[in-house]
Amino acid sequence: MNVLLYLVPAALSLGLVGLAAFMWSLRSGQYDDLDGAAVRVLSDDDLVDAPGAAGRK
Amino acid sequence: MGAEVLVLPASPRRAPVASAAGGEGAQDYSLFLREDAGGAKEMAFAVEGVDCAACIDEIEDLSEALPGIVRARLNYTTHRLTVGWAAGAEARPGELINALARIGYRAYPFEADRLEEIDNATARHLLRCLAVAGFAAMNIMLLSVSVWSGNVSDITPETRDLFHWLSALIALPAAAYAGQPFFQSAYRAVRARALNMDVPITLGVGLALAVSLYETLHHAEHAYFDSAVMLLFFLLTGRYLDHAMRRRTRTEAGNLAALKALSANRVEPDGTLVTVPAAAIVPGDEVLVRAGERAPVDGLVLAGTAAVDESLITGETLPRRLIAGEAVHAGALVHDGTLRLRTTAVGEDTFLTEIERLLDKASTARGRYVRLADRVARLYAPMVHLTALLSLAGWLIAGASLHQAVLIAVAVLIITCPCALALAVPAVQVVAAGTLMRHGILLNAGDTFERLAEVDTVAFDKTGTLTLPEPAVANAEKVPAALLEIAARLALASTHPLARAVAAARPGLVPVASARETPGAGVEALIDGEVARLGSAAFCGCEDLVAAASPEASLVAVRHGPVRALIELRQVLRPDARAVIDALRAAGRRIVILSGDRAAAVAPVAAALEIEDWWAQARPADKIGVLESLSGQGHRVLMVGDGLNDAPSLASAHVSLSPITAADVTRAHADAVFLGERLAPVRIALDVAANARRLMRENLMIAVVYNLIAVPLAIAGQVTPLVAAVAMSGSSVIVTLNALRARSGGPARAKEAS
User: Fold this and answer.
1) Closest Cβ opposite residue B56 in set A11, A23, A39
2) Does one domain contain both B516 and B578?
């Protein structure tokens, strides 16, 4: 049962990482505009701003 | 079937709109600007017309291109734009509003109210609690499943103890954090000497944790950490859903408030005019109100005379002529002329003292209504505690050890903990509220459904409720088509409220460029070489026609050379009023009209809708009297109204609805608000509510049946943590799935005219 000594802490810390990630996303406002996030993915203005994208034309 | 081409949603070409800022004259937005310590300014806008993905880019790019603006972020869910100016840069919100208006969006300065911020903070807190409970529940389950399977095979007592201690380590802090919403609510209830659903929840969770800890200390086979934390997780889900529904409504209401917020023309001490938000006016300020505008505040007329339409305040549709020295109330629409007012009351104080007094009285009466869930809780909580106590006593009498008896009593408490019960009502409410929102109905109160479902009598106000708020041309077929077109073109050049109605009769025309308005008389222009006039009968030389016209209608005369006609304007019924009234009557509901207007104006409407019970010239107190006598006869009345004079009766009726065009105070006191020109939402709301109540009852039945099966098992001492966990999540899932059926409530009329 020695395997438990590192498996259980590993499982718990993975869970904690997930919880921390959720708290971070909540704090950074990712849940403020759920409908907007769904449509913002369609806008591609990020391509124009990307360095080099204009030069390759 | 051919291949479909995926087209990215593109913004339709928009026509420029008249900006909310007006575009001329000085503007003062300092009320809405927030400044941080570094000197950077920020301001929020509610934006109208956001309906596609491309709108986001368009609005944000345009805003950021303006000088001084460093960031602009549009929230697509709430339709709000937040704009930040660079530190030290001068903020010019008016410029932004005008720029947005040019590409077809109306933006309104928006001030988030304190209540909404508290609401958002609560929602975040609930979500954090939910996350913690979810994390804890999953990890403890992981450990518990190992113990359960180990118990039937070869787990060593040491490993089991380790797992139990680990569970305790996760469960205790998690429950202490995630249980806060329930603990606080239970504490408040107990301190007020009342019982709500949170009292048994708190007791159940607390006892389960305490007993589990005790068992762990004594190396027992079972612990209840998983049940306690899972209970919290499910309960938090229900509570978050409930909260999210009400928050959504409040956001919409906040936007509407911004859209409808009035601006006022303040007369500065030096005589200049400055346009400011009505909220910036203080008593004593001088305000100018021009033809076609609504008075933004209560005030005394200092100078000027004008006819004002007070239908939003009293229900009376005939304009009243005001002279200097008379009082005017906020919401009065000035027909012609200009009034200079000294402000006597602003904002929340702007309604008649009588209405205020009646409102206070009516609202306290409403407070006596007890929600279905709370009614169940009042019965349920004592029953649960009694059952637990009885099984403890019973097992002690039957000769069990104190330890065994306590364990069984705790099992009873856990298994009866109202997991399904707590989800039964909120889950249905959330789904049904979503259905209503798709039909253009926004709820103000969470228990609206329960009260709506009990309605057997519907009382309508007339002006603005059964009829549309704006008058419309009633005799379009009698006026020559060419003449009506000329009238509509002339009307576009006028600010008179009746002119707007004439213009609406023939939409999409070009205004006459050279039109000249004579205040108090009408508009004049040269069309096709002949003089065309629109205005009073005397102005157009049509006095001889007046005798033949309908006596109740407002009259506008039009003349083009020798051709002349009288246009009759009157309040028209909402397009589907007849159908909705008939459907309500067919469903066995009694219909009455309560109007503040003259009997001569109410009678034709009542006749057209075949409504026998109607009251005219009813003052607010009279309306309440009628409602009280109806409820005295055992009727549950739904009041539908829009006027300021309806606010007290809306608050005193069993449940109330108001159209979005209603006066602010009235809208605030309605349980639900509906959008659009149709009356159908009244029927839809009643149908959806009836459906929702049926589902709530079904859900409560499911919870009861679950208890009937589970409680005897618990009393018999057969409930292991495994059984408790399965039974609890099973009943929650069934209840939630059943609630989803509320989506299909109401008639399938997705296309609402707006």
Assistant:
1) A39
2) no
